[in-house]
Amino acid sequence: MTKLKKSTSILLSALMLIGIFAIAPFAASAYDVQKPQNFRVKDIDLEEGDKWSVTLAWSPAAGSNRYSYQLVWNTSPETDWNSDSGASPSDWWCNDNNTGDYTYKINSLTYGTTYYFFVRWVANEYPKTSQRVDFGHAGDGLPTTVAKSDYAMIKFDWKTQDDSNASNTNKSPSVKVKSKTIKASALKKSNQTIKPLTIKNAKSVKVVKVKKGTTAKIYKKIKVAKKTGAIKFKKGKYKKGTYKIKLKIKLDSKTFNKTVKVKIK
Q1: In angstroms, how far apart are the furthest CA atoms of the chain?
Q2: Residue 54 · residue 108 · CB < 8 Å
Q3: Lowest CB count within 10 Å: 32, 89, 207, 260, which one?
Q4: What is the DSSP string of 191-240?
Q5: Which helix (H) or strand (E) holds 185?
Q6: What is the pairing mode between strands 231-233 and 192-194?
């Protein structure tokens, strides 16, 4: 009986050891997640003044998992996952179960400034709870110190479009609008043309005037050049004041709606 108990004990111990070795690789693989791949600047848009927005994109992890992520940005190459300029330590985003690449749009960036963008996977699927944030052995919350092998970074320079993980991105088409002034006395003598648009990085341009949003009194008196957006005022008598001209501008595949203010004095 004693021998039987001893044999049973040895067998149970052996089974436990086998279980440990069988589970260990699985447990280790729970944290073996590659950093986000193909991290890149996908699009750039002018907002207002010297403020721009940048849309970032990156590919999901290999396989079917679509992980939640944290993204921060700064003007320094040393990232701070604690930074208020991007996400805070407890602020991260669940995936929305879409297919294809992840995208994230950052607004109100200043033209001419060099930015660094950082993204990392932080959790398995839903729900969004701190207990699910386990990459990097975070435990109950997000780790603030992260190895470079666990996150992707882009250095974005407005002039060189340089980044560390992807090829240079072509600049997005943009358009700026300036208010213009015309003398009423000049309009009495001849047609007058103004050029209120500055268009950049567009392969194709189409500009048309829009009735709704344009001052009714001048709608029929103006002609808009489709390729440049130049506005021609027909010769005639105009009442002094400020007039609005609504333009629909298509640059490549992008459409902008802009309003030009023209002062006749």
Answers
A1: 122
A2: no
A3: 32
A4: -EEE--EEEES-S-EEEEEESTTS-HHHHTTEEE-TTT--EEEPSS---S
A5: helix 184-189
A6: antiparallel
H helix or E strand, kind and range, residue 188: helix 184-189
Question: 69-119, pLDDT tens digit by residue?
Answer: 888 888 888 877 766 555 555 567 777 667 788 888 888 888 778 889 998
Answer yes or no: are the C-beta atoms of 235 and 189 closer than 8 Å.
Answer: yes
Can you tell me the distance from the alpha carbon of 42 to that of 37, in angstroms, rounded to the nearest whole number? Answer: 14
Work out whether strand 254-264 and strand 180-182 pair parallel, antiparallel, or are unpaired: parallel
Q: Under a CB-based contact definition with an 8 Å cutoff, are residues 201 and 170 in contact?
A: yes
How does DSSP assign 9-28, residue by residue? Answer: HHHHHHHHHHHHHHHHHHHH
Q: Record the pTM.
A: 0.48
H or E, element range at 69: strand 68-74
- 52 and 174 Cβ atoms separated by less than 8 Å: no
14 — pLDDT class (breaks 50, 70, 90): low
Tell me the mean pLDDT in the region 45-68. 77
Contact 37, 65 (CB under 8 A): no
